[in-house]
Amino acid sequence: MLFARLLGWWVALLALVVGWGLLLTHPLSGSLGRMDDDLARWFADRRTPTLDDLADVGTLLGDTLIGILSAVALAIGFSVWRRSWRPAVFVVTVGLGVYATYLIAVSLVPRQRPPVKILDPGLVPDHSFPSGHVGTSIMLWGCIVVLTWTYAGTARRWVTPLAVLPLVVMISRLYQGAHHLTDVLTSLVFATVWLAIVTRALLYDESTATRRVKVA
């Protein structure tokens, strides 16, 4: 029943993402599309070798392979430490939801990348919407923050700053010309919402129990 509800929420979220993407690529392509292109050119005009290097580092924070491998290690580590299946199921559910949404949306909503030189070579030209890197960064760093807040309260102040890393990834992808602003914002919103939904469904009881133990 729980996972049926989660599936329902995911389907609804996917429909919203795809619907928004179709709006961006059709009726809104003239208005928002021009704004997106202007911002892409603004970033391109301000490129420097130093900023190029920083953007490369920022992009790695949302790299798909790094994100998946790190998420696997995170799931195993927390599950072994807590002797519970919940951390692993939590990470897997968040990851599957984010990646499935990305793969389906990018297939159903082809969108050309910004009309500037792209600093990340080898990208599929019409896979601009949504941003996989931003989604991956929220999946990974968001899971780290949520699991730490749930199970390791004393370390909260050390991991909370990690929540801003997806913004670093977002700016890096804009700077590199890999995505439009509306692409990265879409990923930022849908991945964050999905993370919140799964957290509420799978970890709320765990977080409450942890607080009760501390009070006792």
UniProtKB/TrEMBL annotation:
Keywords: Membrane, Transmembrane, Transmembrane helix. Residues 89-199 form the Phosphatidic acid phosphatase type 2/haloperoxidase domain. The chain crosses the membrane at residues 57-81, 88-109, 129-151, 158-178, 184-203. It holds the Pfam family PAP2. The keyword Membrane applies. Coiled coil: none annotated. Gene3D superfamilies: Phosphatidic acid phosphatase type 2/haloperoxidase (1.20.144.10). This is Putative Phosphoesterase, PA-phosphatase related protein. It comes from metagenome.
